[in-house]
């Protein structure tokens, strides 16, 4: 028989409220919004960035990715053991970021070959290398995680503020329509970040 105390019930309810607030703010918001990287949720702004309906799925992924950066920064601020944060990074890379990069590179970027797209491709490679280089036992993990969060954050903001508007102008309506169909086929379900170890929540680390 499992006995749940009143305090545990309150903590659980409080955690559910926080997660519901985050999901409502991030995953169900069609226009993309950006603001300072230290706020929470980390992307709400007075003037949303309008996005073509054909590629809005990728922008919704970006919401989740900025939250990923916020979680890393929160974990570092709470002085969480780096290995816990690194496990989350590996999880997010495998199930979210790497598939997202592949969709961008093979579907959205493919019709355009210019400097703006090449910058995004170079940043994808840089992020992959930073994740590959993570090591929790060499004494440099905190710095590596901080740099990774900044790199990913800046990359998402570049794509949303500069690259995506550029592509929306460079691509024809027919190309955007075809891209939307391909993304719908590859992206039937919205991404969900359900990593079990919620190290970024202060109450979770005080139990």
Q: Approximately how much helix is present in the residues? A: 55-70%
How many structurally independent domains?
Answer: 1
Q: Low-confidence segments, ≥5 residues, pLDDT <50? A: 1-9, 19-32, 36-40
Content of β-strand: under 5%
Task: Tell me, briefly, the overall form.
Answer: elongated
Rounded average pLDDT: 82
Under the CATH scheme, which architecture would be assigned? Up-down Bundle
Alpha carbon gap, first and last residue: 21 Å
Tell me the Rg in angstroms.
18 Å
Number of helices: 7
CATH topology assignment: Four Helix Bundle (Hemerythrin (Met), subunit A)
Query: Could you give a short account of the major beta sheet?
Result: none
Descriptive overview:
The protein is an all-alpha fold and 207 residues long. The protein has one domain (6-205): Four Helix Bundle (Hemerythrin (Met), subunit A), CATH 1.20.120. Helices cover 66% and strands 0% of the residues. The protein is built from 7 helices and no strands. It is elongated. The model is unreliable at 1-9, 19-32 and 36-40 (pLDDT under 50).
């Amino acid at each position: 028989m499992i006995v749940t105390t009143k305090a545990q019930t309150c903590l659980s309810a409080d955690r559910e409220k926080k997660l519901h607030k985050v999901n409502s703010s991030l995953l169900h918001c069609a226009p993309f919004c950006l603001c300072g990287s230290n706020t929470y949720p980390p992307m709400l702004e007075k003037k949303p960035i309008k996005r073509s309906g054909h590629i809005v799925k990728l922008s919704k992924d970006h919401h989740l990715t900025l939250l990923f950066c916020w979680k890393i920064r929160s974990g570092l601020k709470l002085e969480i053991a780096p290995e816990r944060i690194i496990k989350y990074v590996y999880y997010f890379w495998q199930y979210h970021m790497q598939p997202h990069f592949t969709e961008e590179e093979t579907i959205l970027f493919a019709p355009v070959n210019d400097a703006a797209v090449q910058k995004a491709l170079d940043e994808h490679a840089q992020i992959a290398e930073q994740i590959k280089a993570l090591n929790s036992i060499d004494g440099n993990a905190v710095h590596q995680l901080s740099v990774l969060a900044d790199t990913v954050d800046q990359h998402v903001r570049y794509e949303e503020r500069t690259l995506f508007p550029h592509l929306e102008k460079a691509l024809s309506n027919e190309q955007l329509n075809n891209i939307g169909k391909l993304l719908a086929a590859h992206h039937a379900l919205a991404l969900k970040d359900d990593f079990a170890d919620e190290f970024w929540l202060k109450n979770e680390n005080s139990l």
